[in-house]
Write a structure and sequence with these properties.
With 158 residues, the protein is mainly beta. Helices cover 13% and strands 34% of the residues. Strand 7 (114-120) and strand 8 (123-128) form a beta hairpin. The N and C termini lie far apart (84 Å). The model is unreliable at 39-45, 57-61 and 63-75 (pLDDT under 50).
């Protein structure tokens, strides 16, 4: 095959965005491959398993090294347990903008009750209570950014 003919084929490949071309003519076989200037390489990103941690209020603050800046809770709040964020992300109290909230103050929850969704890396992660009791306080607002270990709810065990 002539060089001019091969150059023509290469131009056709480029014009039609083809990466491979194979021509067989009797005993002659020509295979042309062209590299892409923007090659797509699939990547697998491993996400840590979503497990929500439930810690007593003071323990969670000590573990995170943070102080809430207010005096210690009254005896009525001493028995409350925090549900903290297991990942960094965006907090959503509803499954969709027009749906009812997963939980409200006063809602009864158990270990399997979904209390919110945290969006991380475009993945919606359902967060379960992992404790049986009553929601006493919601500590974050819808659409708020969360840090790992940040308290989201106060629950009275029961």
């Amino acid at each position: 095959m002539e060089i001019e003919k091969i150059k023509e084929l290469m131009d056709m490949m480029k014009a039609n965005d083809l990466n491979e071309l194979e021509i067989v003519d009797g005993q002659t076989r020509i295979m042309l491959k062209r590299g892409s200037s923007h090659q797509v390489i699939p990547q697998v990103v491993a996400m840590p398993p979503v497990v929500s941690a439930v810690l007593p209020a003071e323990t969670a603050l000590q573990a995170s090294g943070k102080s809430n800046g207010v005096p210690s809770a009254s005896s009525a709040e001493d028995n409350l347990v925090e549900i903290v964020s297991p990942i960094v992300g965006t907090f959503y109290i509803r499954p969709s903008p027009t749906a009812e909230q997963f939980v409200d103050v006063g809602s009864q929850v158990d270990e399997e009750t979904v209390v919110c969704i945290i969006e991380a890396m475009k993945v919606m992660n359902e967060i379960k209570s992992e404790i049986k009791g009553t929601i006493k306080k919601i500590l974050v607002s819808n659409g708020q950014s969360l840090e790992y270990g940040q308290p989201m709810f106060l629950v009275e065990p029961g």
